[in-house]
Write a structure and sequence with these properties.
Residues 277-320 are annotated as: Disordered. The protein is of the alpha/beta class. The protein has 2 domains: 2-112, NAD(P)-binding Rossmann-like Domain (Rossmann fold); 117-279, NAD(P)-binding Rossmann-like Domain (Rossmann fold), CATH 3.40.50. It contains 13 helices and 13 strands. The protein has helices at 12-16, 31-36, 53-58, 76-81, 100-105, 118-133, 136-144, 150-154, 172-181, 199-205, 213-219, 239-243, 262-271, and strands spanning 2-6, 40-44, 63-66, 87-90, 109-112, 164-168, 188-192, 207-209, 222-225, 249-253, 274-279, 281-282, 296-297. The structure holds 1,4-dihydronicotinamide adenine dinucleotide.
């Protein structure tokens, strides 16, 4: 079989750390195994535009493996060119880079490595919540730039303790986020999901399920998004839904940027409706991009759309 692997280039970092597997140099550690079985492996990071290596090799590949970190977008157009394709594997969680309807119609199986990095994401969510709520990045920026205005930092620095925190999606990541937040002694942990937690886990965490998303958002000081990107979550957090959130709440979205409408989040941060946002952001599609969906892009700085500046002086959190 011809296996096409689409990963990011790591350069010298791949040598520094041979366990950095998700890169073109280390190839998920599967080259020897595949070749010993008689398969052909083609690895590339070149995935954009009609003349990309991805487009060149997709025509006769039988298996495509890619990751959400440097996704090879498998659009309908590409699927229609891929006459031998039987299997798309996501080396990670979340297969929104694949046109699932087209894959289904062409009887192409889509598999992902369920549970593969859920602890990392859950820890990242807790870190992002702390960074935002403790107002860490502006304090750090101020300090490394040679200043120290303690009042400017302290006025926007809060505790997680005593807050109401809710997750949209309580699967492998969402449930781990709640478990990790419990020791911070929040006022309440809430979740919105079609599927309830197992009763023992719900009891152990002390979480409460809320049937309607808007009802949960209206109660939360902090909201974390941990559901997949699909047709009913794309652009879910738009102006209207954000307006249902508590004034001055924090929003953390490490799931997929396209679940939030970037411009609406930016406006909400500017107006103080949101006190801060952390996580992924999607920007509108570039013209040259062959995939019909919005590509993901990270904001340059980890503060995301960030804390709204002096505006927050006028929007204190009611629960403090
Ligand atoms: N930033 C990152 O590095 C990573 C992000 N992710 C994202 O996180 C998502 C969740 O991952 P897991 O927890 O492992 O998946 P999971 O399948 O264990 O849990 C997803 C949960 O979301 C729920 N859900 C689906 N649609 C929903 C909706 N509209 N509203 C509320 N809940 C909904 C499901 O019922 C399920 O309980 C992935 O699909 C992926 O997009 C996953 C891994 C890494």
């Amino acid at each position: 079989m011809k296996v096409l692997l689409v990963l990011y280039d790591a350069g010298s970092h791949a040598q520094d750390e041979p366990k950095l597997l998700g890169c073109t140099e280390n190839e998920l550690g599967i080259r020897k195994w595949l070749e010993d079985q008689g398969h052909e492996l083609v690895t590339t990071s070149d995935k954009e535009g009609p003349n990309s290596e991805l487009d060149k090799h997709i025509v006769d590949a039988e298996v495509i493996i890619t990751t959400p970190f440097h996704p090879g977008y498998i659009s309908r157009e590409r699927i229609e060119k891929a006459k031998n394709l039987k299997l798309c594997i996501t080396a990670g969680v979340g297969s929104d880079h694949i046109d699932l309807t087209a894959a289904n119609e062409h009887k192409i199986a889509v598999l992902e490595v369920t549970g593969s990095n859920v602890t990392s994401v859950a820890e990242h969510v807790v870190m992002t919540i702390l960074v935002l709520v403790r107002n860490f990045v502006p304090a750090h920026d101020q300090y490394v730039n040679g200043g120290w205005d303690v009042a400017a930092v302290a006025k926007d620095s809060y505790d997680i303790e005593g807050k109401v925190i809710g997750t949209v999606g309580v699967g492998r990541i969402g449930s781990r986020v709640l478990q990790r937040l419990k020791p911070f002694d929040p006022k309440e942990l809430l979740y919105f999901d079609y599927q309830p937690l197992a009763p023992e886990l719900e009891k152990q965490i002390g979480a409460r399920r809320v049937d309607k998303l808007e009802d949960m958002l209206a109660q939360c000081d902090i909201v974390t998004i941990n559901c997949p990107l699909h047709e009913s979550t794309r652009g879910l957090f738009n102006k209207e839904l954000i307006s249902k959130m508590k004034q001055g709440a924090w929003l953390v979205n490490t799931a997929r940027g396209a679940i939030c409408v970037a411009e609406d989040v930016a406006d909400a941060v500017k107006s103080g409706q949101l006190r801060g946002y952390g996580g992924d952001v999607s920007y509108p599609q570039r013209k040259s991009h062959p995939h019909p969906r919005t590509p993901r892009a990270k904001l340059e700085e980890p503060r995301g759309l960030g804390q709204s500046p002096s505006r927050r002086r006028h929007t204190p959190l009611p629960t403090i």
